[in-house]
């Protein structure tokens, strides 16, 4: 029997056209936009029985947690009627949406696959057809969880990052192996979870007012202390140096953050890397002052988890939420000291 797949249409380059000034914009007419996607490959119906639900037609730059909640609701409402879900989405914030769905759709027993393209579907050399067809193929497989299917990769949504703005191989897995590979056949890693009939639990809602900042040498810490005077900012992520190191003069900043109950999460600003904050005294001191260590989690996941934690938990519980592994986004490694 053919699988039943629901496509959730969210826009992105895949369905964009050049406007009068040459810049890419979403196709204005909603029916045209949907037709453009569904005409990409009419034989897609051989793979699965497909329905489509329109969520939005937007550049994903403009997406907010309100759209994440709409996607979550659409999956929850249709969960029992479909074998899998494919979300067509802009690439710019796809990894954030994938992280949000990974945290909000708990005990997910079916595949939720995000895809899009770097080149619009209407261009001759588009990567849209291949990505879309492969996303539907993966959505019909015995696999559960949220994934990005893009170019030749199947990436756990909770560890995804957009690594290139122009390569067709645009996404990478942060601090882990890919979950699978699109080859002549589709290969999944043995630890990829299979489908199950457990009950889906939905915990949606994200607090958008967080702030992410990257340290630069010699930056005046007072500039960061001012951030704490802005009561709208509910949580801060600092992209610190190396293994999660901050200068010694952050004492007042952390004191003020504790008083104002603003959680401070620390991640590494290295292109490839994770925090090991006990490795150097400069990191260890920040931990002692109350920094929450991000470990091997992607920036996208840390941002989404902080937003989610702020909505559903009190200040005292945020650290525990950040340090909880939900779906494979966090593997705490033993902190090996350098010899
Ligand atoms: N700006 C586009 C978006 O995120 C980029 C893309 O889809 O590739 O919607």
Characterise this structure.
By secondary structure, the protein is α/β, with parallel strands linked by helices. It folds into 2 domains: 3-202, L-asparaginase, N-terminal domain (Rossmann fold), CATH 3.40.50.1170; 210-335, Rossmann fold, CATH 3.40.50. It has 9 helices and 18 strands. The strands form 5 sheets. An 8-stranded mixed beta sheet has the order 4-1-5-7-8-9-12-13, sandwiched between helices. Strands 15-16-17-18 form a 4-stranded parallel beta sheet, with helices on one face. Strands 2-3 form a two-stranded antiparallel sheet. Helix 5 (221-227) runs parallel beside helix 6. The longest helix is centred in the first third of the chain and has 14 residues, at 65-78. It starts with a strand and ends in a 17-residue tail after the last helix. The model has no long low-confidence stretch (mean pLDDT 96). It binds aspartic acid.
Précis, in short:
This protein is of the alpha/beta class.
Q: What is the gyration radius calculated from CA atoms?
A: 21 Å
What is the fold named in CATH at topology level of the largest domain?
Rossmann fold
Q: Could you state the order of secondary-structure elements as H and E?
A: EEEHEHEHEEHEEEEEEEEHEHEHEHH
How many helices in DSSP terms? 9
Average residue pLDDT = 96
Structural class: alpha/beta
Spatial order of strands in the largest sheet = 4-1-5-7-8-9-12-13
Q: Which percent range describes the beta-strand content?
A: 15-25%
Give the topology, please:
Layout: E1 3-11, E2 16-18, E3 24-26, H1 30-38, E4 48-58, H2 65-78, E5 84-88, H3 94-104, E6 105-106, E7 111-115, H4 128-139, E8 145-150, E9 153-156, E10 160-162, E11 171-173, E12 180-182, E13 186-188, E14 201-202, E15 210-214, H5 221-227, E16 235-240, H6 251-260, E17 264-268, H7 281-288, E18 292-293, H8 299-312, H9 318-322
Parallel strand pairs: 1-4, 1-5, 5-7, 7-8, 15-16, 16-17, 17-18
Antiparallel strand pairs: 2-3, 6-14, 8-9, 9-12, 10-11, 12-13
Helix pairs in contact: 2-3, 3-8, 5-6
The structure holds aspartic acid.
């Amino acid at each position: 029997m053919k699988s039943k797949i629901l496509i959730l249409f969210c826009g992105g380059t895949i369905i964009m056209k050049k406007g009068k000034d040459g810049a890419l914009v979403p196709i204005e007419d909603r029916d045209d936009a949907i037709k453009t996607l569904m005409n990409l490959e009419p034989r897609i119906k051989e793979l699965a029985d497909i329905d489509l639900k329109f969520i939005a037609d937007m550049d994903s730059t403009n997406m907010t947690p309100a759209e994440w909640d709409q996607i979550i609701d659409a999956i929850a409402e249709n969960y029992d009627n479909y074998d899998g879900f494919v979300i067509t989405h802009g690439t710019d914030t796809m990894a954030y949406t994938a992280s949000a769905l990974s945290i909000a759709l708990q005990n997910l027993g079916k595949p939720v696959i995000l895809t899009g393209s770097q080149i619009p579907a209407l261009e001759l050399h588009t990567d849209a057809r291949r990505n879309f067809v492969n996303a539907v193929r993966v959505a019909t497989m015995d696999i559960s969880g949220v994934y990005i299917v893009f170019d030749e990769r199947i990436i756990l949504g909770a560890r995804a990052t957009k690594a290139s703005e122009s390569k067709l191989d645009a996404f990478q897995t942060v601090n882990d192996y890919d979950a699978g590979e699109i080859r002549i056949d589709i290969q999944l890693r043995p630890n990829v979870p299979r489908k199950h009939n457990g009950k889906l639990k939905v915990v949606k809602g994200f607090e958008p007012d967080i702030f992410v900042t990257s340290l630069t040498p010699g930056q005046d810490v007072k500039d960061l202390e001012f951030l704490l005077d802005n009561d709208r900012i509910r949580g801060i992520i600092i992209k610190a140096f190396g293994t999660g190191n901050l200068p010694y003069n952050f004492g007042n900043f952390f004191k003020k953050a504790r008083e104002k109950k603003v959680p401070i999460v620390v991640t590494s600003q290295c292109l490839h890397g994770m925090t090991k904050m006990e490795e150097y005294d400069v990191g260890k001191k920040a931990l002692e002052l109350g920094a929450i260590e991000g470990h091997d989690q992607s920036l996208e996941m840390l941002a989404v988890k902080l937003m989610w934690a702020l909505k559903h938990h009190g200040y005292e519980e945020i650290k525990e939420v950040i340090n909880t592994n939900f779906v494979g986004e966090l593997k705490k490694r033993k902190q090996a000291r350098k010899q």
